[in-house]
Design goal:
Elements lengths: L17 H28 L1
């Protein structure tokens, strides 16, 4: 399993603010944990 997350630009062309970046970081960390869990689970099954 591979995770890909693409972030586009905002509609008004503004840069992402600190709150946006913090939210992206939290979601990214959670996704990394889930991907790692999936990898470990697949190794145990084999």
């Amino acid at each position: 399993m591979i995770g890909v997350w693409a972030l586009g630009s905002r509609r008004c062309g503004d840069l992402f603010d600190r709150e946006d970046l913090a939210a992206f970081a939290r979601v990214g960390q959670q996704a990394a944990v889930l991907l790692d869990y999936d990898r470990l689970h697949r190794q145990q099954v084999q």
